[in-house]
Amino acid sequence: MLRSIKARITDSVAGLFAHGTQPLQGTARFPGDRGLCGPGSVSWKVIGDVSAFLGGIRALLIQSAHPEVVAGVEDHSSYREDPLGRLNRTSYFVTTATFGAMPEVESAVGRVRAAHRGVAGLSSRNLAYSASTPELAAWVHNTLTDSFLVAYREFGLGLTAEEADRFVAEQTRIGEMLDADPLPATAAELGEWVRSHPALEPSPGMRSAVEFLRRPPIPTPQRWGYRVLMQGAAVTIPPEVRTVLEVEPGPGARPAAAALVRALRWAMRNSPAWKASLERCGEEYDARQFRRFTEPRR
User: Radius of gyration of the chain from Cα atoms?
Assistant: First the structure.
């Protein structure tokens, strides 16, 4: 009975990320390649945990507070027509950049660079934007890093201050490959940089994106859980940024999200990408601590 419950939960959640190319399918072709982070890294622990689902929602919310970044998404992304495809592409990059062998990392970075070519225009406040500029790349990268870190510290298994700084340093290597600048050096500096960013203000694109994130067109069985994670993500956003976003979590949002994340961790265990990376590096592991890859959906 418990095994059946775990399987249903895992298939329901992991299925959202199984639309298209799955990461690390060929990683065994690079034996011994430790990638950017490697076994024992904080990144493998943080992004391999189910709290990363909540962190991803948080990052998308915060990113929309930057008028030029959200204009690029609104003007050039197909997220409304293909929300699960965009979710897959984002998940593919984060997973590959963190867990992949170096050829896989370089390929994933190349895909992002190619996707950003031509993403340019004018924002709602009549400022020019280009997805390839270091400043906008930094906003996207830094908010992802901050969000995964905050989600794990709030709803994960705990990190020391030194581990949090190590996570930021590890993720900075990815930011450097994307030419992002600036890249804060510590967790405290990163949190402050996000909280006090001078470019943030409400915009039509932001309101449209936030409304979409409140009610994305996902299958009915996953909607309740998504809303709980969305509310949990909102709890962790700094008040200054929440004011810009015009988002306020409802009562009981934090304990509800904490309970759901614990249930997901019980059912889903750790990311299969972490397991595949340990195998590639020749490291020992307990297979019971990892879930299987989900077959892609077309």
Answer: 18
pLDDT in tens, 141-188: 999 999 999 999 999 998 999 999 999 999 999 999 999 999 999 999
Q: Which of 175, 181, 206, 258 is nearest to 61 (CA)?
A: 206
Tokens of 181: 């600048």
CA distance linking residue 76 with residue 35, whole number of Å: 31
- Sign of dihedral through CA atoms 31, 36, 70, 56? positive
Q: Of 40-44, 246-250, 289-293, which range is least confident? A: 289-293
Say if pTM beats, i.e. exceeds, 0.70.
yes
Name every residue whose Cβ is closer than 8 Å to that of residue 168 and which is 6 or more positions away in sequence. 145, 149, 184, 185, 186, 187, 190
186-241, pLDDT tens digit by residue? 999 999 999 999 999 999 999 999 999 999 888 888 889 999 999 999 999 999 99
Pairwise CA distance, residues 175 & 288, whole Å: 33
In this prediction, residue 85 carries a pLDDT of: 64
The closest of 298, 295, 289 to 50, measured between CA atoms, is 289
Q: CB atoms < 10 A from the CB of 18, how many?
A: 17
Nearest CA-CA partner of 230 in 257, 207, 262:
257
What element of type H or E holds 115?
Answer: helix 102-116
Q: Alpha-carbon distance 212 to 188, whole Å? A: 30
